Amino acid sequence: MPELPEVEALKDFLTENLVGHEIVRVLPVAVSVLKTYDPPVTALEGHEVTAVRRHGKFLDLETDGGPHLVTHLARGGWLQWKDRLPDGPPRPGKGPLALRVALETGAGFDLTEAGSQKRLAVYVVRDPREVPGVARLGPDPLADDFDEERFARLLAGERRQIKGALRDQGLIAGVGNAYSDEILHAARMSPFKRTAALTEEEIAGLYAALRTTLTEAVERSRGVAAGRLKAEKKSGLRVHGRTGEPCPVCGDTVREVSFSDSSLQYCPTCQTGGRPLADRRLSRLLK
């Protein structure tokens, strides 16, 4: 799933390639991807893109006096830029193509979705805050006003495991499964640690890990073409998706805890005092 750093890079890429250009056609291929119907997608046609913004993991294309095109790529979605779109309308079918946006130059992009779980979402709205997922977002962790004190206040009201708190978009916008693993590894903290048990020192360390991990990931992704962002993300991860590989910090073997529809990765030596975490479905953390 694209998270804050990849969506930030897509925002920068689209700002360079879309702003100042006119949308001449919006072609939904998978009707299920559209989550709004008023205004219709055709309301975007004939309008110039004036800005591209990021709200957490949402991309927002703003037009001159027209509606916004807001997209959430979800787990299997992606944006594929094409300097020259194919001639003729795309054919509906069982392929990954969900929606196509064409510019007056002949360039444009496709929104695609891999896998059987169709969660890619497209909204055409007059204001991005009309999108429920945008309206409920917590603060952006890379915003200038997101300081350690604000982070501590957010955690003060929580009574749950820190991994879940970091992933909660209503608490902090933009962090998902992969970067929460990376942040906790950098902070040398168990994903199952309870937020209520965090000391001031641990909160300070977690805040530093959050900002550093995301900032470095954004910098790695900056200037990378849209088609290479997935590979860039994977290459920069230390523990997430690296079960069975050596930890780059201490050399211990990266372990995994599986859930019904996801998994987390961690280093026992760096994060849990050398002890493995129990399967979350069966028991609690082995302390």
Could you explain how this protein is built, in words?
With about 290 residues, this protein is α+β, with helices and mostly antiparallel strands. It has 8 helices and 10 strands. It has helices at about 5-20, 130-135, 150-155, 160-165, 175-185, 200-220, 230-235, 270; strands at about 25-30, 50-55, 60-65, 70, 75-80, 95-105, 110-115, 120-125, 255-260, 265. Helix 1 (about 5-20) packs parallel to helix 6 and helix 5 packs across helix 6. The longest helix is centred in the last third of the chain and has 22 residues, at about 200-220. The protein is elongated.
Helix/strand class: alpha+beta
Helix content: 25-40%
Give the overall shape.
elongated
Order of helices and strands: HEEEEEEEEHHHHHHEEH
Number of strands: 10
Which labels suit this protein?
287 residues; alpha+beta; four-stranded antiparallel sheet; 8 helices; elongated; disordered C terminus
Brief sketch in words of this structure:
With 287 residues, the protein is of the alpha+beta class. Helices cover 27% and strands 20% of the residues.
Topology:
Layout: H1 4-18, E1 23-28, E2 49-55, E3 58-63, E4 68-72, E5 77-82, E6 97-103, E7 108-113, E8 121-125, H2 132-135, H3 148-156, H4 162-167, H5 177-186, H6 200-221, H7 229-236, E9 255-258, E10 263-266, H8 268-271
Antiparallel strand pairs: 1-6, 2-3, 3-4, 4-8, 5-7, 6-7, 9-10
Helix pairs in contact: 1-6, 5-6
